[in-house]
Design goal:
Mean pLDDT: 87
Order of helices and strands: HEEEEEEEH
Number of strands: 7
């Protein structure tokens, strides 16, 4: 008899805990390509700036006997975006969560950390806290769509 009272309370507690865990994440749909969907956690979007010293390319001299003109280094400040994104692959039942740093001025992104989950159960299959190499994205890339979506959220 006590089990019948205890079971509904356990189910209710599990439901509340799962909804609290899901509340931290606010994934918004960005785009899809076939069976792959792209999402951004709008609660994780952060904007910052980075300032770097840039060394311009030397200007070749018109006279081959003269050395090229070396320009002084310049400071360059760019906006950087960090956000958590999800890539859902329906055909393989996988959800790839990535914490990504975007450099829109250079059309670059870097995955700083990632998790692979089974989509339907959210069971974690893999995890990496090792930053990956900086990669370029093109004008038709899903990452470009994600950056555009993030800027729309900023307005």
């Amino acid at each position: 008899m006590q089990i019948k009272r205890f079971l509904p309370l356990c189910l209710l507690a599990m439901l509340l805990i799962s909804s609290i865990c899901q509340a931290e994440e606010n994934m918004q749909f960005v785009d899809a390509d076939g069976g792959t969907g792209y999402y951004v956690d709008v609660n994780s979007i952060a904007f910052s700036e980075v300032t770097e010293t840039v060394y311009p390319n030397p200007i070749p001299s018109a006279d081959p006997a003269k050395p090229p003109v070396i320009l002084p280094p310049q400071e360059e400040t760019r906006e950087i975006i960090t956000a958590r994104i999800a890539i859902v692959k329906a055909y393989t039942n996988r959800r790839y969560l990535q914490y990504v740093k975007f450099d829109p001025a250079r059309s670059e992104y870097q995955v700083l950390a990632s998790k692979t989950q089974q989509y339907d159960t959210r069971k974690q299959l893999e995890k990496s806290d090792t930053p990956q190499m900086v990669m370029k994205y093109g004008p038709e890339s899903a990452y470009r769509e994600i950056v555009d979506f993030i800027y729309e959220q900023k307005k």
